[in-house]
UniProtKB/TrEMBL annotation:
<dbReference type="InterPro" id="IPR035963">
    <property type="entry name" value="FERM_2"/>
</dbReference>
<dbReference type="InterPro" id="IPR018980">
    <property type="entry name" value="FERM_PH-like_C"/>
</dbReference>
<dbReference type="GO" id="GO:0016020">
    <property type="term" value="C:membrane"/>
</dbReference>
<feature type="region of interest" description="Disordered">
    <location>
        <begin position="497"/>
        <end position="516"/>
    </location>
</feature>
<protein>
    <recommendedName>
        <fullName>FERM domain-containing protein 3</fullName>
    </recommendedName>
</protein>
<keyword id="KW-0812">Transmembrane</keyword>
<dbReference type="Pfam" id="PF09379">
    <property type="entry name" value="FERM_N"/>
</dbReference>
<dbReference type="GO" id="GO:0008092">
    <property type="term" value="F:cytoskeletal protein binding"/>
</dbReference>
<feature type="compositionally biased region" description="Polar residues">
    <location>
        <begin position="389"/>
        <end position="400"/>
    </location>
</feature>
<keyword id="KW-1133">Transmembrane helix</keyword>
<dbReference type="GO" id="GO:0031032">
    <property type="term" value="P:actomyosin structure organization"/>
</dbReference>
<dbReference type="InterPro" id="IPR014352">
    <property type="entry name" value="FERM/acyl-CoA-bd_prot_sf"/>
</dbReference>
<dbReference type="InterPro" id="IPR019747">
    <property type="entry name" value="FERM_CS"/>
</dbReference>
<dbReference type="InterPro" id="IPR029071">
    <property type="entry name" value="Ubiquitin-like_domsf"/>
</dbReference>
<dbReference type="InterPro" id="IPR000299">
    <property type="entry name" value="FERM_domain"/>
</dbReference>
<dbReference type="InterPro" id="IPR014847">
    <property type="entry name" value="FA"/>
</dbReference>
<keyword id="KW-0472">Membrane</keyword>
């Protein structure tokens, strides 16, 4: 019987190996990933089924020789056209729902609150490329004067100094900088480029562009289209300051991170619970799909952790609901803003070479001068004066092509160096002032905030009505939405606790008055 038993065990082992062999082969299978960079060039690499998202982010950062990598992330789109951020601690294959090979995008995920605290020019250049995309796709909305100055900085960085022998009278027309680019705006850009930015090398022009852009209200906003409880379209976003809501051309809400107590979602309804003016505040919004609502919630959780926490050890796992075993659980994994700035200050290496992809050949006047002479002969910047009704009606915003400037040229690499650069700070009266909590809605531009549909995190089809047709179901009445809000058990319990505290305070006050 002993040989029979031994033979049986052998047969079982062979069956187990045959059963497990397909999964072993699948683990060894290589999957091709293509990552599109900020200048629309692409790099590729192969991964296995258990490769985590952090590997791809490190691969791109190694390609750039980038150390300040915490501001960046990798984005992908699922088959339903919903955008997602690739989670670094999860296998890539488990996150991707699309068919192989995979295509993703390298983008700025957390916008630095103070670009001047970025240590290396390479990191500033990548942020500049992201902001150039934000301007082109309508995410960075700005008044006419600011738009002209930002456009002139881009032209100076791309072309160098204005040269009448090389640049025709309409040379700005070759650059598609804004979704709505009028002739009046192009003339103002040319005026600033000719007269105010002469002598600035590319790195300095980019730095001045970052300094001006970061003071705008829509800096760093990745707009999520929603409906409020009245059925009106709103764009929600998260910045270094806090949670923001835009409607039309106004910012109607700014809730600072210190005042946001909880972000939660249920189905297609997103809640922001916080405190404003010492009172409980509950904001509710409706997204087009549950997937869009969950993505909005995860973006809010990550931004709050990155900008609010002092240390990554303070980050906690959060739940979309207060009820145990209900809802989704998520935790931001990574360093926070304060840790990133501190790590940047300790970088001691020689600055890496920055390779810029110029849209056009640079002017002879730019190449004929050394960078030292450019900085020495630099003229002071004079911010353009704002005016009213500056924008003229033009054609509808484009649907967002691959090139940030709408040019199909493939120019050669251009390597540039910089020495110690100091940006020229615009005058305080020309900056947008921070509105306090008691002020009303802040007008951010003469234009309605309408980001390019193809660049929104939630899928929108411009050809079929855009954001207004995001929501397939009829818009609910305000009364029904309010009933839905107060039917939420978590919020109702919090409101009831608040009412009980008010009643207890009133009883104490009445008792004290009766004793007196």
């Amino acid at each position: 019987s002993f040989p029979l038993c031994s033979e049986t065990r052998t047969d079982r082992r062979m069956k187990m190996l045959r059963f497990r062999s397909p999964s072993i082969r699948s683990l060894d299978q290589e999957i091709l990933c293509t990552i599109r960079l900020l200048d629309d060039s692409e790099i590729s690499c192969s991964i296995q089924r258990d490769t985590k998202g952090q590997f791809l982010l490190d691969h791109v950062c190694n390609h750039y020789n980038l150390l300040e990598k915490d501001y960046f992330g990798i984005r992908y789109v699922d088959p339903e056209k919903q955008r997602h951020w690739l989670e670094p601690n999860k296998p890539v294959v488990r996150q991707m729902k699309s068919q192989q090979p995979y295509t993703m995008c390298f983008r700025v995920k957390f916008y630095p609150h103070e670009p001047m605290k970025i240590k290396e020019e390479l990191t500033r250049y990548l942020l500049y490329l992201q902001l150039k995309r934000d301007i082109y796709h309508g995410r960075l909305l700005c008044p006419f004067a600011e738009a002209a100055y930002l456009g002139a900085c881009i032209i100076q960085a791309e072309l160098g100094d204005y040269d009448p022998e090389e640049h025709p009278s309409d040379y700005i027309r070759d650059f598609k900088l804004f979704p709505k680019q009028s002739l009046k705006l192009e003339r103002k850009i040319m005026e600033i480029h000719k007269n105010e930015l002469r002598g600035q090398c590319a790195a300095l022009a980019e730095l001045n562009m970052l300094q001006r852009a970061h003071s705008l209200e829509t800096y760093g906003v990745d707009p999520h289209p929603c409906k409020d409880f009245t059925g009106s379209t709103a764009f929600l976003g998260f910045t270094a300051t806090g949670f923001v809501v835009f409607q039309g051309n106004k910012r109607i809400h700014l809730l600072k991170w210190a005042d946001v107590s909880k972000l939660k979602f249920e189905g297609k309804t997103f809640y922001v619970i916080g405190i404003q003016k010492e009172k409980k505040l509950v904001l509710t919004f409706h997204t087009s799909t549950p997937a869009a609502c969950k993505h909005l919630w995860k973006c809010g959780v990550e931004n709050q952790a990155f900008y609010k926490c002092a240390k990554s050890s303070q980050i906690k796992t959060v739940s979309s609901s207060n009820i145990f075993f209900k809802g989704s659980r998520f935790r931001y994994s990574g360093r926070v803003a304060k840790e990133v700035i501190e790590a940047s200050s300790k970088i001691l290496r020689e600055p890496p070479e920055v390779r810029r992809y110029a849209q056009f050949g640079q002017s002879r006047s730019y190449n004929s001068l050394s960078h030292k002479n450019l900085i020495m002969n630099m003229e002071p910047l004079v911010p353009a004066l704002p005016s009213t009704n500056e924008y003229e009606e033009t054609q509808q915003s484009p649907d967002g092509g691959n090139s940030a400037l709408g040019v199909d040229l493939q120019p050669p690499r251009v390597s540039m160096e910089t020495s110690n650069l100091r940006p020229q700070t615009p005058k305080p009266e020309d900056r947008l002032e921070e509105d306090d909590e008691s002020s009303g809605p802040l007008t951010i531009s003469e234009l309605t905030y309408s980001p390019c549909a193809s660049m929104l995190p939630t899928p929108v089809d411009d050809g079929q009505g855009g954001v207004d047709l995001l929501f397939s179901s009829p818009v609910q009445s305000p009364a029904r939405l309010l009933r839905e809000l107060h039917a939420d058990p978590d919020i109702q319990a919090q409101l009831e606790a608040e009412r009980e505290r008010d009643r207890a305070y009133e009883r104490t006050r009445q008792a004290a008055r009766s004793r007196m």
